[in-house]
Amino acid sequence: MIPLGIAIHGGAGTILRSHMTPELQAQYENALKEALNKGYSLLGQGGTAVDAVAAAVMVLEDFPLFNAGKGSVFNHIGKHEMDAAIMDGSDLSAGAVAGICGVRNPIALAKLVMQRSEHVMLFGKGAEDFALQQKLPVEEETYFFNEQRFQQWQEALAEDRVSLDHNDKKFGTVGAVALDASGNLAAATSTGGMTNKKFGRVGDSPIIGAGTYASNTSCAVSCTGHGELFIRTVMGHDISCLMEYKGLSLHEACDVLVHDKLVKIGGEGGLVAIDRHGNIAMPFNSEGMYRGFKNSDGKMQVAIYKE
Q1: Which residues constitute the domain of residue 192?
Q2: Which of 33, 48, 78, 219 lies most in the core, judged by the most C-beta atoms within 10 Å?
Q3: CATH code at 64?
Q4: Catalytic: which of 14, 21, 48, 173?
Q5: Residues 272-300, mean pLDDT to the nearest whole number
């Protein structure tokens, strides 16, 4: 019998207990639990890994404390430019969107790019037009407005800098990986990117092989961190390669990338990953990472800080 499993993340970085109230921590933990339960319930009903990761990520996109969907940060001109990607490990099909505005759930659009288009990635207005064609929910800018995000943007504008989500250096990208009853793996990632980002900057989240990757021969991976460094290390695909070509275990491969290769070039962040046997890894090299998993062994865990 194939074990079911799902793991999620809501961002990594300098997440300090001293900056967290009990009420705020409970909000984060409840959102993580809701996302896990949503995704796992689909797996338990015989649903696909693709459907499970999309559903879990949509829960996090709808939660304003994460930098994705409703909680996305402001770019340099005061817009919310969002990126997302999803990948099916059974046949390596994938869908991604970059630099989109107004789409309520970017991961839903990425899924439709995979399932209903001939392409892997759409960006900007073209992707938005495709969303309208597919009749996805589109929201006014007021839906995405968040006072805390607005103040972060104002401070970044005043200092003419690009901020990694929060002023306390948190990468708020969200993501999920899953293994279904058919033995198929999938990964999904969604983000609002960097506060005050300019020039149409795109990070690792929508780039297949960097921030998002899944292959039934090895694993599914969703990353969160300083996107430029994750692109340069081709994080998701490199983990898969270490497993497929060198025979490393999931945990060994993830440790090589997160705690060695990434660190050597000054990269910070983490990831969640699951292999075809249901093993789950959630490594990070930052102070904390919003994360959790649930599997058919009856285990469920959500965590924020280092153990």
Answers
A1: 5-91+146-305
A2: 219
A3: 3.60.20.30
A4: 173
A5: 96
